[in-house]
Every structure is written in structure tokens, then in C-alpha cells.
Amino acid sequence: MYCRLRLKSDDWSVRSGRRAVMGDGPGHTEATPSLSDDENHVHPFVSTLPLPYRAEWLHDLPRILFSLLTNNYYCSLVAVAVLLFLLQRWRNRNLPPGPWGIPFYGNLNYLLHLPHLQLSHLREVYGDVYSFKAGCRRIVVLCSFEAIMEGLVYKKDALSCRPELDSYNSLYQGGRQCGLCTSDVTEQYLLRKHFANSAIDAYCSAAARIEDKLSSEIVDIINYFSELQRPFDPAPVLEMACLNVSLSLTFSQRFDPAGRVAKEMWRTFEHRSSVYSFNAVDFLPLLNVFTTDDHPEYIRARSGDQVELHRRFLNFHKDTYDPSRPRDFTDQLLFFLESGEERGLFQPEDIDNILLDMVGNGFQAVAVTLAWLLGYMALNQDIQSEVHEEIDEVVGRDRLPCLDDQPYLPLTAAVIYEVQRLSSIKPFLIPHAARATTFIQGFEVPAGSIVLFNVWSLHHDARYWTNPGKFDPKRFLTEDNVLDIPDHFLPYGAGSRQCPGESLADVELFLFFANVMHQLRVTPAHPAFRLDSSTYDHVLRPKPFEICVKERD
Ligand code: HEM
To answer: How far is CA 76 from the centre of its chain?
Structure first.
């Protein structure tokens, strides 16, 4: 027994059975009294050792293994599996840490159910950069500000593509590479993005035109809300109003929100947006064999109908276009097509797809943010009263707020930012993909991985925000009541895929919110009023809730 205890300690000379020298380093030359230098001799001490420590067993190991492998089929299989496993571990040694997954399925469940909560919880376990498999795809999730900025800005050449997901192909007639949102960074994409950015910027620089187009929609909404003498969910009404704003800004068109055409259009964009949520078939292609899912065809057909409608508007614009007086985005695009240096490179389908993305992306994100805003105002009556006071002081009661008031309403702006932070309606931006293998924070991101920028986690991280779960708009204000927007606030992303509609969205959110607050008080419809996010589908909507509104004096 004594021998075993001694030998289990650091007595490497006895374990090896080869050395006649005891001790633990050079210069220590005291001879072991009982061990011989003879390689074949086994000392009685050694014969009492557990099997793995015996020298003769070790010597015979290659021969034993060889005979096991050649004579035993199962052993060979196990050996090959172990070898492959070790090889895989060695190849993945630089990958970010992450949970083990079920073979072939991986951890797809993290993406299918409340992914913003699950992926933020995983940060606490595996750190700011982690990865896992979802079916056949590797997902890399970046959570800290440093990792997110490294991916979006410093490594943008490697990480600005979009994932090659089958569902995305149903969005555009020519496949995903023809869209603005889903294309990789190609020359044609850069052209589309440049045109979209320029058209929106040129349009936004004429504030009066935007106010003109928005004001009728805003007045309609306020009248509709105040005439409702019962509790209601504001989200559907806001979506129809914002769809009309989008159509008005893009084509100078508006439709009766209760009419068939507007409802059909809304449905088309709903279906298109569902494609951006994580669909199991994109990760488990085998499912295609077992399902007869005609959803992609259906989306392609509906998108085709929408493009037909847009072409009618476009043709009307071509016939009535006056370059000195652009009426909307379509006129701006026509102007760039005629005067821009790159005009020859542009295909007619590019225009179709830019218009499709501008109308679709534009209205949903703004409408959902407005719904969250009304929900938070219902929950926080004291802050709502402060917003009312601020607006009354600057604007008065005799006119409605306008864009010129914006710089003098810091609390109103801070409330919008705080709601954008807490709701983080695009919790992972739009998924990016790695075009080439790169390293983020020292971890390998292999080519082809899907990269999720976890903005939801960033916006709820106690390292960047004091008491992050609390609704506190004043965190965006200095002590002197001046707006102070920290770098780690990223509702529109950053880098080459940054949202081109940011300036327009800011204008829309401000005008809608300031006007509603000027005219109405929002209260919860029930004492047990709660605000929670529902399932993720392109945008993170609030679960349906009901509010009441009362006209202010
Ligand atoms: C509150 C409103 C909005 C929010 C929070 C928002 C947020 C975002 C985010 C996070 C992205 C993805 C960035 C990335 O993947 O790195 C994006 C992309 C995009 N947004 Fe917005 N957006 C809003 C409004 C708008 C509006 C009003 C328009 C158009 C008029 C628009 C058009 C687009 C387009 C076309 C893209 C794709 C850009 C690309 O892939 O290069 N968005 N938006």
C-alpha cells in the first residue's frame, strides 16, 4: 500500500520504469536503491502497480493496439472515431467557446425560441464571443462593444456579407443577391446602397417636404385614437399609418388603411419579414425532403405582385418627372439614374428591389418602435408628464410640434432613445456572414459562419449601462440637460451595412411621438398592464397590449 502511495506521487523515475535516478531535475543524482537500469527487468515494486503503470504493459502497448485494431472490427471503429474527434478538436482549437450540441441538430433551439434572451444568457456562460452549431451552420455571436465594433468596422471586409440562406432567395425575383438587405457586398450591392443613401439623404435635407407628407398621417392617427372611447392595441393602427407614410415618401401615394389594397400590401410585407426570422429549414436542409412547404413560392408571387404595383407608380413618375422639383424617393432615384456617373451600371431590377426594401423596411421598424413608445409611456406616467411639460414649454398649446423644435426638446428625444435601447427591435441587426476566415478578439471566425451582432445583449449589459433594466431616459442627458448619446448605443448598426434609413427614421419617430404627446395622455387599459417582447421575426414586437388615451386640454 505504502509503495502505491509513493508511486502515485511525482516519482516519475519509477513510473517510467526506465530511470535509475530519483528526484525532480538535473543535478539530482541520487540512485534509487532498488531499480535497475535494465529495461526488461521488472522490479517487485512495479509489479504491485496498477496495470497502466507497468513498464512491460507500456512497452507492449503498440503491439496490443495493433492486434486489437486488426482483429477487432468494433475497436477499429472506435479508434477511428476517437482519432477524428481529436483531429476536429485540434482544428477547432481557436474557435470561440460554446455549448455542445446534438449531432446534426446542434443548438438550433437557441435560435427558434426567444433568441434574444437565450443568446444573451449564453454570454454569461461563455463570454463576449461564443459560437455554436445550428444544424449545418456555425453561428458566432458577438456581445461586447469591442467585439461588435471589431466585427462591424475593423473587420468589415470579412464580415459584411449576408448568410447564404435559401429563404432569402424568395424575397426577390432574381434571388437574394439582387436585394439590398440580403446581397453580399458586391459592386452591384454597393451601387444600390449608394443610390439608396443618396436618395434618402437628399430627401431628408428638405425637412419641409417630409413634414408635409407626415402631418396628414399624424393628424389622422391622433383623431382616430382620441375618438376611440375604449381600450385598444395601438400596434396594428400604427403599422397601417406607417405603411402609408412609407408609400407617400416613396411614391407620393396613400391608400385607405381599411381598404383591401392597403391590407394586401401590409400582408405581403408581413410575409416578407417572416423570412428574416430564423427558419429551421435553412439550418436543416433535410427537412425540405419531409415538408411540402410552398411558403417560398407564395412569398415570391406576392413580392412579384408588389413589384408590379411599384412599376405602375414608377412609370407614372417617369412620365411626369421634373428634375427641378423632386416629389419623393422615386423622383430622387430617377434623378440619380439620369445624372449619376454610374447610371449605365444600373439594371431596371435594381430599382424594383431598392423600392421594395425601402417601403418594407421603412414602415415596420418605425411602427414597432412607436408601439413600444406608447407602451412605455403608459407604464411611466411620471416621465410622460415631464415630456408633456417640456413640449408645452417649448411649443405651447397653439400649434403642433415641428422639426425645428427638435433641438429644444432633449427629454422627448431621450425618451425615444431609451425605448430604442430597451426594446432593441433588431436584436442581432440583420445576420451577417463571414466571407473569409478572420479573428475577432483573438477567436477564429471561419469563412461561411453566420455572425450575429448581439445588440440586445449590448443594450442590456450592466458594464455599459447603470441599472440596465430600468426605464430611465435621463441616462441620455447630461446634468445640463443636453443630449449625450454613448458610442455603445447601436440601434441602426454601424459600418458598411448600417441602416440607410436612420435619418429618416429619426425624423418620423420624433414627429409622430412629439405630436401624440402634445395632444394625448396615454394610460394603461388594465391594472395588470405588462410590456414584454413577443417572438422574434425580423423585428422584436411587444406582445399585444391595450392602452386608453385621453385628449389633453
Ligand atoms: C426605427 C427604425 C429603424 C431601425 C431601428 C432600423 C435598423 C436597421 C438595422 C439594425 C439594420 C441592419 C444593419 C446591419 O445588418 O448591420 C437595418 C438595415 C436596413 N434598413 Fe433600417 N432601420 C430602421 C428604419 C429604416 C427605414 C425608415 C428604412 C428605409 C427608408 C430602412 C432601410 C433599411 C435597409 C434598406 C437596410 C439594409 C441595409 C443593408 O443591408 O446594407 N430602415 N436597419
So the answer is: 45
